Amino acid sequence: MAAKAEPIGPRNGHELAPLNTRADGSERPHGVTIVLQGSRNSLQRDAPDEDRAAWSGKLQFFLSIIGYSVGLGNIWRFPYLCQQNGGGAFLIPFLIMLILEGIPLFLIEMAIGQKMRLGSLGVWNTIHPWLGGIGIASCVVTLFVALYYNVIITWVFFYLFNSIRLSADKLPWAHCPQDNGTAEAECTKASATVYYWYREALDASPSIEEPGAPRWWIVLYLLLAWIIVFFIVMKGIQSSGKVVYFTSLFPYVVLTIFFVRGITLPGSADGIIHMYKPKLAKLLDPTVWLDAATQVFYSFGLAFGSLIAFGSYNTPNNNCVRDVLLVSVCNALTAIYASVVIFSILGFKAYTMVEKCITK
């Protein structure tokens, strides 16, 4: 491919995107040129930028994608949607949307980042300067996601540090608080865990007009969450690529522990049967198909720009089709596996609630 290409026809200010020039006016050794030829736009990409960071190995890349794709959407949202939208019947629209929507869009984002070796902002500016706003919008959306995900991590830290006890009976959410030997009436009506969540973790106010004051320990946990995120991403993939060996594999270890424990509890089989017992009549509801499409979009993390960035650290000759298929299969199987774990525990909870009702 030629190093440079001359525009055909008169220039109107949009034929050449100034992507080959650095801020100081010097020429980049390898750059991108957008050329307008007649009635068609042609994109020319010179040799890949040798200064671009790269994954240290295929395993690091694969674990990074798995750690990004597999999350709360698989572990909690998918089981909830399954139970709400026909149980096992929900797997039919989910798999169809996975094939028609998830895999193609996933492949497009990975391939375009790998081919251009640019992040989301650079990719959309390269396609056309007028499309640069798409890259900016994806960064803004990612910022919003980071804001609320760090709040969730804050609650995780809160429960983690409060769960360090010698026995389960001493957990602060194991029993209702006592006032002169009498349990709180609000806690008695709900449960000890619900009371602890709303009154200790959230400290929920009566209404939105009364926001209340921040709890200093929650603020410290939030600060800790942001500090950890900063240290993970401060050196790009040189730091985050090493952390994924823990962040991607540890959730599967925890899921397996819960799975072994969950299936041994009484009532777990009833929960799993209730989860996957198909209600085929639900497939006639368009909302079920919409939920399946939304779940695929959400669980893959499409349109956030992150997949483009992940792909940009691969070599241009990497087999991204194989990577996309492997990650897609792993994503779907993780959602199904997590559903079994969640509903085995919910089945046990339902069993204990029935036992308490019979006893009372």
UniProtKB/TrEMBL annotation:
Membrane topology listed for this record: Multi-pass membrane protein
An example molecular function term from Gene Ontology annotations: amino acid:sodium symporter activity
Annotated keywords: Membrane, Metal-binding, Sodium, Symport, Transmembrane, Transmembrane helix, Transport
PROSITE patterns to which the protein is assigned, alphabetical: NA_NEUROTRAN_SYMP_1, NA_NEUROTRAN_SYMP_3
Cellular-component GO terms for this entry: plasma membrane
Keyword DNA damage: no
Compartments in which it is found: Membrane
Gene Ontology process terms (BP): amino acid import across plasma membrane
UniProt cross-references to InterPro entries, sorted A to Z: Na/ntran_symport, SNS_sf
Positions of region (Disordered): 1-27
Name of a matching Pfam family: SNF
Annotated positions binding Na(+): 67, 70, 74, 299, 331
Keyword Metal-binding appears in the UniProt entry: yes
TM helices/strands, residue ranges: 59-76, 88-108, 128-161, 216-237, 243-267, 288-313, 325-346
Family from the record: Belongs to the sodium:neurotransmitter symporter (SNF) (TC 2.A.22) family.
Protein name as it appears in the record: Transporter
Organism field: Euphydryas editha
